[in-house]
Amino acid sequence: MHSLPSQAMRPFSLSSPSSHSSRYLRFFPISFPVFPKSKFLNFPTKSPPLIVRNCSSVSTKTPSEFRKNRAVSEPDEKLRALRQLFSKPGVGIDAYIIPSQDAHQSEFIAECYMRRAYISGFTGSAGTAVVTKDKAALWTDGRYFLQADKQLSSSWILMRAGNLGVPTSSEWLSDVLAPGGRVGIDPFLFSADAAEELRDAIAKKNHELVFLYDTNLVDEIWKEARPKPPNKLIRVHDLKYAGLDVASKFSTLRSELVNAGSSAIVISMLDEIAWLSNLRGNDIPHSPVMYAYLIVEINKAKLFVDNSKVNPDVMEHLKSAGVELMPYDTILSEVKSLAAQGARLWLDRSSVNAAIVNTYTAACEKQYKHIEKTNKSQKNVDLNGWSTAPAGIYKASPVSLAKAIKTAAELEGMQNCHLRDAAALAQFWAWLEEEIHKDVKLTEVEVADQLLEFRSRQSGFIGTSFDTISGSGPNGAIIHYKPEPASCSIVDGNKLFLLDSGGQYVDGTTDITRTVHFGEPKAWEKECFTRVLQGHIALDQAVFPENTPGFVLDAFARSSLWKIGLDYRHGTGHGVGAALNVHEGPQSISFRYGNMTPLQKGMIVSNEPGYYEDHAFGIRIENLIVVKEADTPIRFGGIEYLGFEKLTFVPIQAKLIDLTLLSAEEITWLNDYHSQVWEKGRGPITHHGPTGLKKSFGLAIMVFTLQIEANLKGLTGLAFAGWFSPSVALEQHTATRQAVTAICAVHF
């Protein structure tokens, strides 16, 4: 993540916060580009605007074409009610922007904060809705184009962000509003950077950005139907899984504060708070975090959280770490108080919301005037090291990088939970294949539910790490597809089936995708799958010098697809938390080349190239990998070289592979991987799963191994140009096949 320029000398103030703004019990940055230029913020909950590549299966449309298949606009009561509030006293706006986020820029949010989904009907995790007095538009990225097209009513314009001819929301507002228009936002839902960039963008047409501190307009029309805020208990994350105690983490952070000339830091990202405090919550689906703010000063710390979530164990844990509890909704008043005391606050403007930053800057302005009036010296320093003249330190949060580099205990937990997860998946795939071959009709939802059942039998399982993407045939082409009971499809044994899923365990977090076919795949499907696999292998085998940012490696995963003019509309890899968010930054592997964060030892990223043909099929192969030191014979320039180590060990279906496309080295990789799958999988099957797992895991490996052998035998009559021999490849399978045969003889 880039560091932002310091604005220590009198930061700007967009507007003066209301005296009632501290009452708030509300809450990846703008989910979809509202600005003409991007800042490439940290993924995931800090995801940058997406740049969508044009693929052969995607045709670019102008905004006017997006509604061609929609009926004539129908009345929308929610939009009507929202627009009526535009002229309410104290509001007075011409447009209102509803982002996806809560007050902490979270990717996944509690149901009561799903305002954009409520107003638009679009349930994808990324998107921005903009409502004017006579129009409504929604921006989302390539992962959600098909889903949004299905879910939006005819009252909405779908803006396919990143496609040619599609304006950003700020550009669109500048065009549709008369000069001098007022654009309203809830400042708690925008990062300070996002709000400033939006303000600057719309100011070009003399439009004004209006902060509505005291009310969220969507909440006003949601009324009693709005779900209650979450209030589930917080738990202590055991030191044996964390690896570092809170005191050690605070000590490192305070050293960073001193070096930056700061007296305190405001932390608002929920996973950063959970990691730093060694606490876990249950406020948000799929993410073990709690709604809170944390202020760490040089000699004390305050956690702003609903006290009803804190049990005696957590209270004692916080007390021993020197953390004082404060009501969640007092964060703004505390920020004002710190400014009045002369605190130099460290604020990450890419994540801390505009309400907090603007409150602090306004309080600083007030303090400056007070100092000038009383003619006090700004050089005086008190016992806390605070200057009597407050000033912001605007830099990236140091917690983000510290959290991304896993401790030895965190890596051990991730390795262990992945093996238990693999055992559940082995049982699941064996079950599903058997059911499909018996011609049992199963819906995508029923399949996802059964996978959850298998996972729930594993020790330490807490829940899913995201909504399972269970997509049969054309639904697999919807990159973040979420099947619904009322509208999902039957899993068709004659079509590709994509399953992207993950689990939260007490010791780690998993995320895995496999694409399979239960019948006879078409030649084109096999070629596409094989090219995706080649990209997966290329990234897995990559060796690169230290200080290499992830975007440098992205082309490794796309190269095989590029050779025939194919591509995919998402990044190749995201960071993953340890018993935390399944998406975390600052590292990523993506074509978004603005993220200069280097990959470092101990970081975990996903390896997930894919290919998607709209209305036909989707393919993705995903493992989690950890950055490790590479043992190279030479170290040019005296620097260290890095590579990857796999965390995920689940078979890759071989019937989908066109072996004529693979090199000998790629086939060796596949053989070695399946050997590791078997060797590493035996432990959790024996010790953590029921007896039936032994049979199912053995069946899964046997099926995949025998399929590889059958495919290779079929190539015997083909002429190869001296670089590949089927017999050699078959010999490489011998050890694995013998091991599988032995276990099957015992358990079948």
Automatic annotation (TrEMBL):
Residue ranges constituting the Creatinase N-terminal domain according to the UniProt record: 81-205
Short name of any one Pfam family annotated for the protein: Peptidase_M24
Coiled-coil spans in chain: none
Residue span(s) of domain Peptidase M24: 412-629
Superkingdom in the source lineage: Eukaryota
InterPro entries linked: Creatin/AminoP/Spt16_N, Creatinase/aminopeptidase-like, Creatinase_N, Pept_M24, Pept_M24B, Peptidase_M24_C, X-Pro_aminopeptidase_P
Cofactor(s) essential for the protein: Mn(2+)
Gene Ontology MF terms: metal ion binding; metalloaminopeptidase activity
Cellular component GO terms, alphabetical: cytoplasm
Keywords of this entry: Aminopeptidase, Hydrolase, Manganese, Metal-binding, Protease
Domain Peptidase M24 C-terminal: start-end pairs: 640-680
Keyword ATP-binding: no
Family indicated by similarity: Belongs to the peptidase M24B family.
Protein name as annotated: Putative Xaa-Pro aminopeptidase P
Species in which this protein is naturally found: Morus notabilis
